[in-house]
Amino acid sequence: MSKTSHRPDVKFWRDPDLPGVEIRYSRYTTVCFPKHTHDCYSVAIVEEGTNTAFLRDSTVAMTAGDLIVIHPGEVHACNPLQDSGWTYRMFYIDAEILEAAALDVFESGLETPEFPEPVFRDDELSQALVGLNEAIEQGADALEKESRLLDACAMLLSRHAQAILPEARPQGDSEATGLIRKRLEADPTATVKLEELAALTGLSRYAALRTFQREEGLSPHAYQTQLRIAQAKRLMRDGASIVDAALATGYSDQSHFSNAFKQVTGATPRQYRLSRP
């Protein structure tokens, strides 16, 4: 009897006619992701299987046909149930795209779309998103792809989002968390120690660590790793080799880079770089 392969099946699509959009198709049979964030909106369609999603400090179950929407910077982790597997199609959409679509949909100068219910069912929206993916894969003309993207965004926003005024946004994190985030984002490849973060914030090392982790949902190290991998992805999208992307983001050890990349993205650097542009 043949054994079921546990090798993940991952494919990416990127299209020069749709900057700010990336699509991935993934099939996993084992737990793959720790808690993490994305710097864009993430919209996933569960196509097969059952999985759990940690989101907004709670865990929910999702099955085939469900959609999930994750805000930029929102800590989450989605993984298959034990001894199960799941297939999903994820659409990463830059915030600027949804904000521009929100202005069209709400016609009132509102922005910052938010989704009060992160998990829901909407077959028509799922079909629209899959249609967008197919248009990209088949090399449709720019007008069709742009139209499909706007239609899908409008459907998502008009049915499932609320928009808030900039002045109505929730109060941000503490000054200490902001200072640490700014330091890490200024140079993600830099070697940063807790002593530096403590001196920067005026807190003890433990207080600086705990404050950031409580408010950001990730440790400073995990946040820095995400920044490095995001930079490596941009470099590879622009044509950099895996070795050059690793070195440019502070990874002199290729094995270390590959492990970090897979932990954050669920794919190997080679799978990501060889995916269709």
**Helix-and-strand structural type:** alpha+beta
Helix content: 40-55%
Rg over C-alpha atoms, rounded to the nearest angstrom:
19 Å
The CATH class of the largest domain is identified as Mainly Beta
Order of helices and strands: EEEEEEEHEEHHEHHHHHHH
| Poorly predicted spans | 1-5
Beta fraction of the residues?
Answer: 15-25%
Total count of helical runs of at least 4 residues: 10
State the total count of DSSP E strands: 10
Query: What is the H level of CATH, i.e. the homologous superfamily of the largest domain?
Result: Jelly Rolls
Classify the fold: give the CATH topology of the largest domain: Jelly Rolls
Please give the largest β-sheet: 8 strands, antiparallel
Number of domains: 2
Mean pLDDT: 86
Question: If you had to describe this structure to a student in words, what would you say it looks like?
Answer:
GO terms for molecular function: DNA-binding transcription factor activity; sequence-specific DNA binding. This protein is α+β, with helices and mostly antiparallel strands. It has two domains: 9-167, Jelly Rolls; 175-273, Arc Repressor Mutant, subunit A. It is 43% helix and 23% strand. It contains ten helices and ten strands. It has helices at residues 95-106, 123-137, 142-160, 175-186, 194-201, 205-216, 220-237, 242-248, 254-265, 269-273; strands spanning 9-14, 21-28, 41-55, 58-63, 66-70, 76-80, 86-93, 111-114, 119-121, 162-164. Strands 1, 2, 3, 4, 5, 6, 7 and 9 form an eight-stranded antiparallel beta sheet that branches. A two-stranded antiparallel ribbon has the order 8-10. The longest helix has 19 residues, at 142-160. The radius of gyration is 19 Å and the shape is globular.
